[in-house]
User: Fold these one by one.
Assistant:
Number 1:
Amino acid sequence: MADKKSFYITTPIYYPSNRLHVGNSYTTVAADAMARFKRLTGYRVWFLTGTDEHGQKIQRQAEAAGKPTAEFVDEIVDWIKELWEELDICYDDFIRTSEPRHTEKVARMFTRFYEQGDIYKGKYEGWYCTPCEAYWTERQMDEGNCPDCGRKVELIDEEAYFFRMSRYAQALIDHIEANPEFILPPSRKNEMINNFLKPGLEDLCVSRTSFDWGIPVPFDPDHVIYVWLDALSNYITALGYGEEGSLHEVFWPADVQLIGKDILRFHTIYWPIFLMALGEPLPKTVFGHGWLMLEEGKMSKSKGNAIDPRVLAERYSSDALRYFLLREIPFGQDGIFSLESFITRINNDLANDLGNLVSRTLTMAERYFDGVLPEPTAYDERADEDLRSTALQIPDAVESEMEQMKISDALTEIWLLVRSSNKYIDDNMPWNLAKDPEKRDRLGTVIYNLIESIRFVAVIIQPFIPRTPDSIWEQIGIKDDPELQSWASLGKWGAMKPGTTVKRGDDLFPRLNMQAEIREMRGDPPVEETNVPEKEEEQEGLINLEYFQKVDLRVAKVISAESVPKSDKLLKIEVNVGEGKNRQVVAGIAKHYKPEELVDQSVLFVANLKPAKLRGVLSQGMILAATDQDGKLALSTVDQDLPPGSRVS
Ligand code: MSP
């Protein structure tokens, strides 16, 4: 343990002013994946999260709720802790800024700053944004509103203590310039230097007198300490700052402080300056990630169930939600959350790619080898090398992406292996090998390679979707073998032991019906009664003619087709359905047809399907296709030339 390299990662501490939405969960899920990854790859990790409980905003919210502030905060903190449990957040410590272990240290720091002349008493006359807990000058404001959140600011006029930021400004600029890793992604660095540091730092007001929900200034208790000075200190108070033999000695400076881009200024200007004043080293990296947005704009709790992370995790599983959050927001940029994109990810990446790989492979292992892992005796260089070398290079590729905090790219790398494995099934067609007894050894090798590849995938996905590997260990018969679940076991190919009993389990991620989910989650009324088959008919699995005729089936002629950006599954297709005006549909057939192969084909088409958006692209209908159990897909067409729009019945 002692010689392990240490890794300290933090999240922002959340305001317990409201329940968190799915966007807030992003930071913590990302930090958790990072912490788990470092643990898996052999580091001694400390992962801190918590709640930022003081300040005017919280006090007002509690008043509005008609509750004593401490009680109001306790309830939300409990809710947040339950959320983290549901999302499998494996933090090592949860700091609440109301705890004495924090407040006492912050009070001592404030006194030290005062005694060393960093803080002086004065009067603040100026603007304050309570939702952001931020001071603004006239020049910084945006037409009289807060430049960060756009809301109204308040004029305050009170006696206050000030921190001499200018004392440390040059040292901070020098540090930022000399340490390109300090602010990431790099684009955010210039914003800080040019917008805030270069124009000259004004002294920062660090106490308030017009409310009392905060840490009192020890030598002047009419003042409470400014909530950001209080909150930022949590990253060291939680480590036992100032105590002999504390975790602070092991873990400070932090390796990564993960935050949303909106609070970068506090973390890359105020925080380092406070640390410099304490004579402490600065964190190695402050990483400002992008935001998860809704199609219609910013998230807010009032936008409903669809963004309540606990509702989403309960309905779709914590792994599905974690996967979506980590995969959907590319490195440092903003991403969009919509139920459509969430369900598309579940269906495509988790159910089709990963889930099918596991279920197809285990079904074949049971069918052809009675669930006993065969010996790989018939290696075929040409057919097997690709899969083997992809598997062996993925761990390094993932590690390199994670070093740069490119979590989404790390998942893309892992999915290369998932997809290569599915392709390996399609290329080697085990069902054909099974027909020829002479090819039994080869069939055994193909199945062995697939299970070994699944083991690689399961080891690497542990930090991202930690529940799924447990089910895979069980299915491939290594649930009691920690060695085979370890990162170190990925150094060579072929660690699975022939003779191991394997057994197909439940599907990892059942496929979801997009329309039904959208209806349910948006609270739309259920489908009209007449659309639903009679009870007895439903039991027999039959529908009557009238019911069938509700589906408007037509012949459609493909006019043009193109790929949908950032999707390897979807094609955007324009079809003529004999209406005078073409329709646009999105079909998940890109893996089976090239766009140019589709043009001029006459296909069967559902013309009265409710329009939906896939990957933000409007789809007005559905092209019919048949799929066999191995995933081979063929479009359904007509065997004579019929004009577009012809009815199918
Ligand atoms: N209490 C301060 C942080 C103090 S850290 C010493 C705070 N809290 S917060 O609850 O308002 O926000 C916490 C984090 O959630 C921030 O990093 C913020 O960027 C992040 N997010 C809020 N909405 C978000 C999205 N829609 N998407 C991604 N992250 C989002 O600020």
Number 2:
Amino acid sequence: MTATHTDKPAIVIARAIFPEVVEQLQQYFVVESNQANESWSGTEFVKRLRGKHGALTTGEQRIDAEVLAACPDLKICANMAVGHDNFDLPAMTAAGVLATNAPDVLTETTADGGFALLMAAARRISEGEHFLRAGKWREWSYDMLLGQDVHGTTLGIVGMGRIGQAIARRGARGFGMTVLYHNRSRLSAGKEQDAGGARYVRLDELLRRADHVVLVAPLTPQTRHLIGAAELALMKPTATLVNIGRGGVVDDAALAAALQAGQIAAAGLDVFEGEPSVHPALLRCSNVVLTPHIASASAPTRLAMARLAADNLIDYLTRGTARTPLNPELLA
Ligand code: 8YV
């Protein structure tokens, strides 16, 4: 149903979300929700979006000039994600469409997820479990599944936003790690202190010195393949690489080659180029822990993300305000 059938604004929810959040939205809007969680093609999504005033999107729905031209009634897209590389922000602003994301509510959970991947990769947890389940554990051996230490080592964080800083705190305070970071811009001295005394360094220095590298960078034209063959070659052969930022920041083919060649020891990946497809060469590497984009996936956090996206839709379409706008110039 579209705006022509009722006084209530109309919205579409692109993927299934918590029923209680759908119910909350139904109090304010005529809601079309993909509760069957079908994989709508781009064309199908635009068909559903046409005539709607708002959309609750995940990172999967691309909103660009073409989509916006086809949906002139659209006023807001609320991403249930902190990342927003699916939004063409200048095009949205030009079309007068507010964009919102879901920051803060997922920071600590996502940092936990990143740290879990780091621990699992460095200590070969997945390999150990596969070994055991395959019935290969017959006796104790001094060199069975030897990994690398995490405590007391050097942690390198690429992308020092809120999640990067939360990982730094875990490393420094919980594991006595020395923290190096690289970011578009240097943090204030106070923030560096809060992030476990993190030290700003160039990317090449970070890659050379870190025992464990965690990528939390967004995908932008500048960060695409930020870590490729040349960068992997700088890392220690005992190093671990974790990516919880975005697929495409790492050249997955180059990473698989580095893992196979023993150029680095291990990797932990939650995001992939072209996900949900995963590069077949990565699937063949035993020294990589692979998870299906679940770093933010704790029950309370995913609910908080959905609620924040819903609140942005309600606030904007009922009173013209928004909690976490990405193009706040539209609010003025
Ligand atoms: C989301 C994420 O689950 O917030 C982000 O940027 O990557 C994840 O937390 C995913 O993008 C689906 O919306």
